[in-house]
Each structure stands twice: as C-alpha cells, then as structure tokens.
Amino acid sequence: MASEKEHSPNKVILHEHKEFISAIGKKLKQLRTERKLSIFKLCSDKNISRNKYALMEKGKLYFNLYSLLQLLDYYKISPEEFFKDMK
C-alpha cells in the first residue's frame, strides 16, 4: 500500500519565495550542465526522482535542506560557495 506522502501534491510556491527558489534551481542546472551530466545520470547516482529534480531546477518545487545538501556534496561544492553570489 502506497504511503499518503507519495501522493501529496506539491505545495504551491508562494510569490515571495519564487525568486529565491528559482535562483537555486538555476544554479543547480548550471552545475549539472557545466559537468555535462544528464538529469537521468544525476538522478540515478543520487537515487532522486527525475521529475522531482526537474521541478527543483525549474524552481517549481519546495525541497528540503537535506536534498539540497546531498546535491551539493555530489557536486563537491560547499553551501557557502553555492550561495555566495545569490542575493
């Protein structure tokens, strides 16, 4: 029996969060493309849903800090480095 969490719809990104969430997504996409990784390869390596990751890159999904930190570890970049140029 599938858990209720698996079927929960994504939370709507609040207007005041859109710019920040979108900036994180763009930076994640930049890291992936600079390293010439496909979404399939990245998601396979990190055991992340391709749909979830694609929504993260598009800034259309709230995600938890643990997920972001796992991705930064994968890219071998510190959180400080990742966020240093963001407003």
Describe this structure in words.
This protein is an all-alpha fold. The chain contains 5 helices and no strands. The longest helix has 20 residues, at 15-34. The radius of gyration is 13 Å and the shape is globular. The N and C termini lie far apart (44 Å). 7% of the residues are buried.
In short, what is this structure?
With 87 residues, the chain is mainly α. Helices cover 60% and strands 0% of the residues.
What is the percentage of strand-forming residues? under 5%
Q: Please state the overall shape, judged from the principal axes of the Cα atoms.
A: globular
Count the beta strands. 0
Uncertain parts: none
SSE string, helices as H and strands as E: HHHHH
Provide the helix percentage: 55-70%
Question: Nearest-angstrom radius of gyration?
Answer: 13 Å
Structural class: mainly alpha
What is the residue-averaged pLDDT?
89
How many helical elements?
A: 5
Task: Give the biggest sheet.
Answer: none
Report the end-to-end length measured between terminal Cα atoms.
44 Å
